[in-house]
Amino acid sequence: MKEKVQLTENAMNSIENGAVLYEKDTKVESIALLVKGRVELVADGISMVLGTGNFLGACDIGKEMHSFTYNAKDDCAVFVIPIEGMAGIEHILAEKPDYRGLLVTSLNYFLAEIKKQLQHLREENESLCGFIKEKYELCSQVATMCGFEVSVENALQKVENCMQQSLQEPEDLGRYYLECAKMPIEAQKKFFCGSQYVAMYHYREQCDVVNEFLSYCREQGEVLHRLFRCLILEEDALFQTVGKLALALLEKGVRDPRIDQSVDQIVEKINETETFLTEKAGISVQLDRDKMERLYFALLSGEGQTQEEIEKLDEPGIEYLYESLGQIVEYAPVHMRVKSEFTEAVEAFTVLPDKFARTPEATEVRKNISKLYYEIYEAVVKKSMDDEDIPLAVRLFLDYGFVSEKLLTDEELDTMLRLRPEMDPAEDGCRVYTMSKWLQAVYDGVKETSKNEFDEDFATYLRRRVKEQKITQKEMDEAIADKEQRMNFECQNMFRYASRIINGNITMFVPILCSDGIFSNMKNSYMTEKRLNDTIRQIEKIDYSIFYRERLASYENVDINKATIIERVTPDIILFPIYGRNTIMWQDITGKRRTSKGRLFVPIWLEKELSLEMVHLLGNFRWEKCRTETGSHWNDFRYPSLTSEYTDYLQFYKKNSELSQERKNKIRAQLVQCNNKHKEVFLKDYADWILREARGAMKLSRVARTILFTYCPFSAETMKALEGQTAYSEAAKKYIRDNRAARKSLDMMMHKWAKAGLEVPQEITATVEYLKG
Fold first, then answer.
1. What is the pLDDT of residue 746?
2. pLDDT value at position 424?
3. For the chain, which domains are there?
4. For 43, phi and psi rounded to 5 degrees?
5. Strand pairing category for 46-50 and 39-43
6. CA–CA separation, 58 and 35 (whole Å)
7. Residues in the chain with pLDDT < 70?
8. CA-to-CA distance for 580 and 506, rounded, in angstroms?
9. Cα-Cα-Cα-Cα dihedral of 304, 306, 311, 313, to 10°?
């Protein structure tokens, strides 16, 4: 990084080549008259070199902030003049008449140079746009002739969109001063030296024109950078599209000189544009030159594993994520105010030295991000539903909470790009949704809305609003049928509220991914459908009945009016685009039906050990499922159930003669540790049940073991491994007795179908298999 020099005011300063005199976006406290050497000025969209006789920083005195970074191109000499706003420059022009002509004249030439740079930018954009269009069209023609399918419509539309954002400045903008620059220098100096008022009047207007020109340069620079992305830095960029076609042709033993020549021309254009962006537009870019070299080698050699080269060409690189925040905000169909405020908030967050500080400034920045994030996320999800060509940065935003490449290290970015969402090949597992896919399912009506923090689903929430006379019955009916209102309810309630809990950093929460908030290896933290279901299956091998629910059925053809059927109903898992340390059992059922799917929330980046966290999550599911099934009797010991018996056990443990004094002391300590919350004690015991007791390590009391074996029985496989241990045989007595009675009842039913010569229904057969453990 270049070193900023310390300038001595009211004195001549020697500046070494490469040193920084003033930095962009810093306060203007002085200006410098360049006496010797050259200085490079760099701003967004422009890079130019000035020689002697120029006042460095003078164009920004009114703004009070530097628009440029000033880098010494040679060993320079400058005379530094302290300045305090426009009053300061007026005072200088009044005191030093010679400075009047020098200042105004130098700014005339400065404006002429900026105008020249702006014209170069515009010409470069038009040239690059035409080049990209021509090569895309050639690629499409050759692909069609050779029987390949190559779609370039979306890519061409991106190029058109870039150019549509290129505004033409007014023809007469700054023309007066540009004409002044054509006059002899001495004539200009002599004229402006004659009056402090005239010089000051011109100076003020010159500063305004400089700012207008700079805004157009900035805009043209952004257009050029977007076109450069279309050239090389997008997944469907011209280089990737033509390169893949060239390799595909090579694999079939076909060579088309037009395509081979195009690859050379594209690489040349990439190098030219990169140089222009860096040297003329002040914009730095990242390129994966290894990828370009691999393509060249494959084409030049005319042999090798071209399919592998094609796949490598498809691999996204970090350079695709340059200016990701801008890509995401540009994609989001929200009001310009929202885009601007969100961008400002994220940029302010990026430069915070301690992003999770409790200072008012840091708290306000995090609050502003959270306030706007969900509105943008919802809008992006809605737009992405009909988009087959979603930009990489936007996909990472939707799935991972990624917002800016500046908030992650290169290693973290590379890891994120290499990760793939492994699907579970088995069909018996939990269905796993990313947040964007879940919101789309709610939007399409495939899934009902989740409950909010007040335990209300969308319909319940609307009924309360009607009761409070805040909306009419007609408005409620319209809202229930409105896709956008359903998705908005899901996003602004469930998603917004649960994100904070899942993250675990309640008071310093921010919903975007950043290095400062990551405390584990990203690869190990990454959650996929396969990984989650594999972990769940390991738990099901022990607690085999966790997802099974009872329902009643009747079969009139064999005179059975009431049969208990047991079915497997797995919950849905929703992956939150967030880094977090917690999982949530949000709902054990959907709506009122007790055989409907529950909802479990898991962060896409889980800080904790997955197996331990999943045991805790499913223990929670066990408890809440029982509460729902037993209703208001969930803690009434007269109605035996997991929750009622556990509550009774913990409430009256002191009087329980089956417990030793030592065990009672341990239970008391557990209750204190869990703030006297019976559910929390159960979750700790359930973890011991799955992780230790199932392996024969007895950690629980005899009473707790009996309750757990009755309602969370071990599988037949697990029981076989524990044969011979009296403690488990005693605990299993009630379960075995109830199980035999249920199987006997089913055997009698099956006899009726056999007697009638009818096939036994599949759900009855499945229930029998379930009872076998």
1. 87
2. 84
3. 1-95 (2.60.120.10), 122-174+214-315 (no CATH), 316-535+564-601 (no CATH), 642-731 (no CATH), 737-771 (no CATH)
4. -140, 180
5. antiparallel
6. 15
7. 1-2, 167, 298-314
8. 11
9. 90
